[in-house]
Amino acid sequence: MTLPQRVKLVDVGPRDGLQNEKQPVPAAVKIELVHRLQDAGLSEIEVTSFVSPKWVPQMADNAEVMAGIVRKSGVRYSVLTPNMQGFDAAVASRPDEVVVFGSASEAFSLKNINCSIAQSIERFRPVVLAAKALGMTVRGAMSCTVGCPYEGEIAPHRVAYLAGLMKDIGVDHVGVSDTIGVGTPLKVQRALEATLQHYDVDHISGHYHDTYGQALANTLASLELGIWNFDTSVAGLGGCPYAKGATGNVATEDVVYMLHGMGIETGIDLDKLIDAGNFISEALGRKPLSRAANALLAKRLG
Ligand code: HMG
Ligand code: MG
Questions:
Q1: Residue 144 annotated among the catalytic residues of the structure
Q2: Which residues surround the ion ligand 2 when the cut-off is CB under 5 Å?
Q3: Does residue 2 fall inside a structural domain?
Q4: Residues lining ligand 1, CB < 6 A?
Q5: Global model pTM greater than 0.70
Q6: What's the pLDDT tens digit per position in 53-90?
Q7: Which atom of ligand 1 lies closest to the CA of 83?
Q8: Which of 132, 160, 246, 248 is the most exposed place for a label (fewest CB within 10 A)?
């Protein structure tokens, strides 16, 4: 088995992480987090989302956060845009990439974005066209590819169906998301294989929440299939307001520790990443939800 030699991580902490915090996080703190992540070597950061502030008030400062970032050359900044209203609002912020987000589960689609899977594709279609006309790439997040909080287990053919729809409307790259973190390695591989029917291995990411402690194992299982793009979240921040009980994405620090230990390059400085995770965790008044970060922080103290 040949594992990828290099892995690209997209830190989704500022978006997936901070969308789920009960306490308000000032825009200045979000901006500082993005700066620390780019200084640590992250080459793509999912900064915010242009969604309804009534649904997700935590992201209402989207434009302010995007405007406050001092951009670093070579770093890509992505934002979520579920419809044309979100896309139009995002354009002035000049994202490099926009993310449409659908679901393999009909019930989750309705709860999360208030429309069916078929309707969501019709909302995404003009977003893809408009983004491409402006030279932006489009990523498609696919939620509930293993399990759904409302429908239970999701069969791989439903993942293939959604991936096919994403491909048809011109989405460049898709993320196979285990939204509620129930997946185990073989189930996640089945979801990835279903996606591989429509996208090549270079255009698929893994996005694994760690609710059941399976996300690192699922990452390794993905590497075994040649997947080399992953969404991870600094300090393990995250969750989805419409997936109750789901915890954060796998911590970026834990994935970087694992990959570096396997001799796989990420371009990320683990020490600086740990500082970024510590910064946001202190701002939120808790310890990082990363085993590797806490172990290395304890070691620093001697
Ligand atoms: P809707 O109610 O169907 O939209 O919401 P609508 O077009 O009928 O409009 C209703 C109201 O929303 C109107 O305002 C619109 O102006 C407003 P009102 O007249 O009532 O004052 N509106 C918007 N406002 C700002 N930005 C917009 C926008 N669109 C409409 N883009 C909508 C549809 C998608 C907007 C809504 O359901 C929503 O905002 N949902 C939140 C979805 C969300 O952010 N979920 C979390 C992110 S996804 C996730 O975490 C999963 C992921 O990590 C992968 C994984 O782990 O699975 C990506
Ligand atoms: Mg997520």
A1: no
A2: 16
A3: no
A4: 16, 19, 49-52, 55-56, 82-83, 85-86, 89, 101, 112-115, 141, 143, 177, 179, 207, 209, 240, 242
A5: yes
A6: 999 999 999 999 999 999 999 999 999 999 999 999 99
A7: 31
A8: 132
